[in-house]
Specification:
Elements (H helix, E strand, L loop, with lengths): L4 H7 L3 H8 L9 H13 L3 H4 L1 E4 L4 E6 L4 E5 L7 H16 L6 E6 L4 E5 L3 H20 L8 H4 L5 H5 L5
Parallel strand pairs: 3-4
Antiparallel strand pairs: 1-2, 2-3, 4-5
Helix pairs in contact: 1-2, 1-5, 5-6
Length: 169
């Protein structure tokens, strides 16, 4: 099974979420939060579609890539920075390096926070870290469905209703 950038992000959020998504139990299409994220990316930076290109890596797409500087631009709707965002972008950088892109870089933009975060990439150490994530993800996906996290951590997850329907508060 191919490990996608989305699965790497989910690995850093919830092991149950990565497992469910990989098994094609997808809740994002009905999630208002996911739809809001797409809309923010489209309306916040409308000029990008003409300026930068989308790159299809086979297992995931980079929405905005500046080929002149080898920079991935990732937009997140979140009102807080998360490790999952950095992990997803580092996986993009790993994949780009694997196909021969030299010195790939990335920035994560948080329009709600008005913050742009540069993601550092060290080919030696970060490649090892990404390969560990891939190994961990593979182990999770080969097992049975992981348990739920605590309900308080799940409130904004697109899988919340799936995991918690029928549960008392």
């Amino acid at each position: 099974m191919d490990i996608t950038p989305t699965l790497i992000a989910y690995l850093h959020l919830c092991h149950r979420k990565i497992w469910l998504h990989a098994k094609h139990l997808r809740m994002e299409s009905s999630s208002d939060l996911v739809a809001e994220g797409r809309l923010i990316g489209e309306i916040t930076y409308p000029q990008r579609a003409g300026k930068w290109q989308e790159i299809d890596l086979g297992i995931g797409k980079i929405d905005f890539f500046d080929a002149k500087t080898n920079t991935v631009h990732e937009v997140k709707k979140s009102n807080k920075k998360e490790q999952s965002h950095i992990a997803q972008v580092k996986y993009y950088l790993y994949l780009l390096e694997k196909i021969g892109v030299e010195n790939p870089r990335a920035v994560i933009e948080y329009p709600k926070l008005r913050i742009v975060e540069n993601v550092e990439w060290d080919s030696e150490t970060d490649s090892i870290e990404v390969e560990q994530w891939l190994s961990t993800a593979t182990n999770i996906l080969q097992g049975t469905c992981p348990p739920k996290m605590s309900k308080s951590k799940c409130k904004k997850c697109s899988y919340f209703d799936f995991c918690w329907s029928g549960e008392e508060d």
